Amino acid sequence: MEIRSFDIFGVHEFTPKSFPDHRGLFAAPFQEAAFVEAVGHPLRLGQTNHSVSARGVIRGVHFADVPPGQAKYVYCPRGSMVDVVVDVRVGSPTFGRWVAVRLDSAEYRALYVAEGLGHSFVALEDDTVMSYLCSTPFTPSAEHGISPLDPELGLPWAEHLDGEPVLSDKDRAAPTLAAAADAGLLPDYDACLRRYAELRAAA
Predict the structure, then answer these.
(1) How far apart (Å, rounded) are the C-alpha atoms in residues 167 and 156?
(2) Which of 90, 70, 19, 56 is nearest to 167 (CA)?
(3) Phi and psi of 195, rounded to 5°?
(4) Model confidence over 46-91: pLDDT tens digits?
(5) Radius of gyration over every alpha carbon of the chain, rounded to an integer in angstroms
(6) How confident is the model at residue 162 (pLDDT cuts 50, 70, 90)?
């Protein structure tokens, strides 16, 4: 398993070895030892999610209140996508910055998104599947979003789309990053750091 970390604290990429043969292919997108090496604590599993998206669908940018927040370990078992993580933690030295990683069913690369970070992706093919391992269950009252089309963020959708993106009504109506900050919806960076420290201490 290859591990890559990013300038945005709490984002890690995992690339497993794959083993093709005459029967097909085997890969292990999540491996606990590699995860603990990178993150410093095991992944608590509160819920698994599964989404299927048509080409051009954008989901997110989504995040949850911290504490407890919801960390996500995501990979693409079918199709391909560009996965984007946005630092929406107020007070973070990388606030407003983002990273983009291609996830697909050729390499089975996975991405870890720590609590307090915003998560989004665009499907590059029809019937693209996203598999999510989530640290906490979905809690509607604690879930928020910002607009993936916020011009100030400049997320890299245009270079991957031929036409207009397809969004849910909720995502299309989500506030910009600046508006969400003004409304007090964004996670606090220090609160996130305390949460990460609690998880490491519990391990």
Answers:
(1) 15
(2) 56
(3) -65, -45
(4) 999 999 999 999 999 999 999 999 999 999 999 999 999 999 999 9
(5) 16
(6) confident
| Cβ–Cβ < 8 Å for 170, 8 | no
Q: Taking Cα atoms as reference points, which of 132, 121, 29 lies closest to residue 81?
A: 121
b/e burial code for range 42-81 (CB count within 10 A of at least 16 → b): ebeeeeeeeeebebbbbbbbbbbbbebbbbbbbbbeebbb
The SS3 call for residue 88 is: coil
Q: Which residue in the list 41, 119, 132, 144 is annotated as catalytic?
A: 132
Residue 46: which of 15, 68, 77 has the closest Cα? 68
Quick one: 95 exposed, middle or buried, by C-beta within 10 A (0-12, 13-18, 19+)? middle
List C-alpha distances in Å: 181 to 146, 159, 200. 10, 28, 28
Distance (Å, whole) CA 131 – CA 78: 9
Which tokens is 114 given? 């720590």
Q: Among this protein's residues, is 119 annotated catalytic?
A: no
- The yes-or-no answer on residue 160 being catalytic is no
Catalytically annotated residue among 12, 62, 144, 160: 62
Residue type, 182: D
